């Protein structure tokens, strides 16, 4: 079931096991680990985790769209804590 009204900001409070990228099966913990290891933008996270690289988000994600918005929010939130 696709959830068009899915709030991207919800990812900031999601559990570490929450799937962020459904295409590549990458969870919140993996994204945060990449950020801790130096990822500073979406391309860095893509390279380090494989997230946001398969291009089947509309088919696989309950959001019905790409995970890049959630990844960018996680990067921004972590940078504010540094």
Question: Your description of this structure?
Answer:
This protein is mostly helical and 82 residues long. The protein has one domain: Arc Repressor Mutant, subunit A (Orthogonal Bundle). It is 43% helix and 6% strand. It has helices spanning 28-36, 42-49, 57-60, 68-81; strands at residues 19-21, 26-27. It has a two-stranded antiparallel ribbon with strand order 1-2. α1 (28-36) packs across α4. The protein starts with 18 loop residues before the first strand and ends with a helix. The model has no long low-confidence stretch (mean pLDDT 90).
Domain module count: 1
Q: Evaluate the radius of gyration.
A: 12 Å
Uncertain segments are none
Global mean pLDDT? 90
Return the structural class.
mainly alpha
Q: Count the E strands.
A: 2
First and last CA, distance: 37 Å
Major sheet: arrangement of strands: 1-2
Q: Output the CATH homologous superfamily.
A: BFD-like [2Fe-2S]-binding domain
**N-to-C order of helices and strands:** EEHHHH
Helix share, percent = 40-55%
CATH architecture: Orthogonal Bundle
CATH class call: Mainly Alpha
The proportion of strand residues reads 5-15%
Largest sheet: 2 strands, antiparallel
Q: What is the CATH topology descriptor?
A: Arc Repressor Mutant, subunit A
Count helical runs. Answer: 4
Shape: globular
Quick overview:
It is built from four helices and two strands, in the order ββαααα. The chain is mainly α and 82 residues long. The N and C termini lie far apart (37 Å).
């Amino acid at each position: 079931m696709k959830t068009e009204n899915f709030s991207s900001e919800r990812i900031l409070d999601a559990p570490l096991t929450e799937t962020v990228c459904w295409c590549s099966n990458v969870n919140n913990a993996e994204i945060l680990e990449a950020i801790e290891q130096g990822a500073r933008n979406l391309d860095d996270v893509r390279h380090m985790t494989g997230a946001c690289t398969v291009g089947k988000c509309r088919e696989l994600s309950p959001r019905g769209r790409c995970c890049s918005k959630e990844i960018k929010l996680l990067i921004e939130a972590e940078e504010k804590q540094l």
